[in-house]
Amino acid sequence: MGAVAIEDVLFPGIDVRVTAVHVTVERVAVEASSCGRPSACPDCGCPGRRVHSRYVRRLAERPLAGRALVISLRVRRFFCERSSCPRRTFAEQVPDLSERYRRYSVGLRRWMQAIATFLGGRPGERLCRTLQLPAGRTHLLGLLTAPAVPERAPRVLGVDEFAFRKGWRYGTVLVDVEAARVVDVLPDRDAATFTAWLREHPGAEIICRDRASAYSSAIREAAPDAQEIADRWHLLNNLSSAVEKTCHQHRSCLRKRAEAERNSVSRRIINPLPPPALPPTRIAVRTRDRYLDIHRLLDQGQSVSAIARRLHLDRKTVRRFRDTDIDDLLASARHGRHKGALEPFTAHLTERFTSGVTSPTDLFREIRQRGYQGSDLPVRRYVAGLRTGTVEPARGAIPSPRKITTWIMVPRGALRPPEEDRLLSVRLTCPDIARACDLARTFHDLLQHRRGHQLLEWVREAERDAPAPILSFAQGLCLDLEAVTAGLTLPWSSGIVEGHVNRIKTIKRTMYGRASFQLLRTRILTQP
């Protein structure tokens, strides 16, 4: 093989000639001069022919063998020979090496842009310090430039909100559904902002959105000819919430049935449970007082929001105290809710304990055969609490409203036989839950098989005898009937938009959550 020139090693494909190389412990200094064809005038494009002068530029380049690399580049300055051009002289730029007003090479700039894109300011600065790159956090962030937004909106546009700070400040992300890429990011979720964007960027024929009224009003005002499509996932999520509310409202029916079945079976009580007396702890007293205050204000006709403002509580807390029995709240205040793997087996443990099986080891073996995956320590603690009366005995074994909702909302045939049996028992116990189950599964079939033309028939069926939460859901569909019908008919949805919202959450976690809107927008638009 022939000898390889040093220019081909340091500057492959670049028209420069290396004249000297100086190596020290900390850095490598290279002296080079341009030897390519003359550049053209940046104003008029006239090629340079006469050399005005020569001068030396210092460029920082990517590290070489663990040492910082500095280039002393000798370049030419040319006369512009076109009399109409206001520029008299201009300096040449070496392609793929130098740029106007830059003190670092093109390759180094690309490296630093990639670091700023993926890491941000301070983390990028720390990495550059390790790699011996001359860049601070402000300089790195200054390299980020958002790509230009197309003048026309994509044919299929997806819109959704995302949180700058959850519960306080939100923005809007616009996605090209067909190309699966972010088109633009808006600083808020107001209808006026989205309306202005649609007017400045016409061309959207189909717009996928959630059930938010602000986006719907903006579309009707700025793009009335566009086809609105309500997202199917949000429809199922709203229906699931309505089903869960129905199960909450009729929990007493399930409780009575479970207690009746439990009392109907004669048992030989060997070690009767001591009556659990709630100790007058501060949290128990506070729970009882809060329950009384909330229900007193509810009886006066005040709304949940008004009660939350008056008592300085979250609205979710007010709803929980409104929909939950005082006994359940006090039990939760006393020993906390049973969470984790033991929760589905507490009723069985209580029943077997009252029947005389008091050994934690035997009870642990029994529930292991029933599918328990945890250790024996929670079982021993629960049995010890039953002995001393410090644990509220598990009452009739009834599934939680969320569990029932899960059984109802999964596709047909996806439940295991034990779950089918328990759901059937729930349906036989409460006619309203059975009716909600039938309507929810019918709606799921409409969505799955794209039968949007049957939506009105489903709404009329729901208006006939549906429980109140399901009826409210059906009436809400009528307010957005065209978009919902399109969502149940056409193949488009906001699934890709939701994916980009999750990507934005990941970007925020990489130190962009505290950044300005412009920086976060640039990061969202530049990262693939």
Gist of the model:
The chain has 528 residues and is of the alpha/beta class. It contains 23 helices and 10 strands. 49% of the residues lie in helices and 15% in strands.
Structure characterization notes:
The chain is elongated. The protein has 23 helices and ten strands. The strands form two sheets. Strands 1, 2, 3, 4 and 5 form a five-stranded mixed sheet that branches. Strands 8-7-6-9-10 form a five-stranded mixed sheet, sandwiched between helices. Helices cover 49% and strands 15% of the residues. It has helices at residues 6-10, 106-119, 122-130, 137-142, 191-200, 213-222, 232-249, 251-264, 282-299, 304-311, 315-323, 326-335, 346-354, 360-369, 377-388, 401-409, 417-429, 431-448, 455-465, 468-479, 481-487, 495-512, 517-526, and strands at 16-23, 27-34, 51-64, 67-79, 89-91, 156-165, 169-176, 181-186, 206-209, 227-230. It has 528 residues and is α/β, with parallel strands linked by helices. Residues 265-279 have low confidence and may be disordered.
What is the molecular shape? elongated
Measured by DSSP, the beta-strand proportion falls in: 5-15%
Q: How many beta-strand runs?
A: 10
Distance between the termini: 42 Å
The largest sheet is: 5 strands, mixed
How many helices? The count is 23
Q: Please mark out the parts with pLDDT under 50 across 5 or more consecutive residues, or reply none.
A: 265-279
- SSE-based structural type: alpha/beta
Average pLDDT, all residues = 83
- The level of helicity is 40-55%
Rg (CA only): 35 Å
